[in-house]
Protein: Ser/Thr protein kinase RdoA (MazF antagonist)
Organism: Actinoplanes octamycinicus
Amino acid sequence: MKPEGWEALKRWGDDAARIEPLSGGVANDVWRVRVNGQLAVARLGTRSDADLAWETGLLRHLDRAGLTVPVPIPTTDGRLFTDGLVVMTYLAGGPPETPADWRRVAGTLRRLHEVTRGWPQRPGWRSSADLLRAETGTRIDLGAMPPEGVARCRAAWARLAGRPACVVHGDPNPRNVRITAARVALIDWDESHADVPDLDLALPGNAAGLDDDAYDIASQASAAWEAAVCWDDDYAKRRLAEVRPVDGAR
């Protein structure tokens, strides 16, 4: 990203200022900021305007539907992002820790899926169904994976064929959930896209309450997805190792 990119923060007001960096992964520079006297989170990255328009539009829709998500804060002239910079509301809370916490997360994810049925695909992304034929989509390049690994991933995704699509969060790990007694918030929507809901539901302790077969399908598809998205770091290789060989896929 451009070193001068943070100059754009002035478009949220003369008093807008960075406070401290936050963990934001490799794709973005994420900071806690102060805007209009309130704490907020700002994310600077290299995503296209079309991608940012999709994400900010989704977050506003989810907020109106009653989900707790980071809501984009407009610039002083009403834009939801500018020069790769997005400023969003800050959400406090801790990660899910107990089985009851994870059941609440599952309920929130199901609400997300319910209110986004038929949502258009994120620009440049591919769904698991698309990748049964396509080779690439944003961060995924199946051509970089071993052919046997690709076959395993596609066999796992093929078990989802024909299911209706919606928006999936794409990475509902404990770092991306903020729980309080009153609500469950989902943050970090970098991996969200249109796909089948199963990819979000392979939760710890089977918190979504899937039957054995459904949980196996979701777990295998999710592991295959994370292997493909992260290829070829150590985490991706561990996730691929969880995906059964083709002869074992049902």
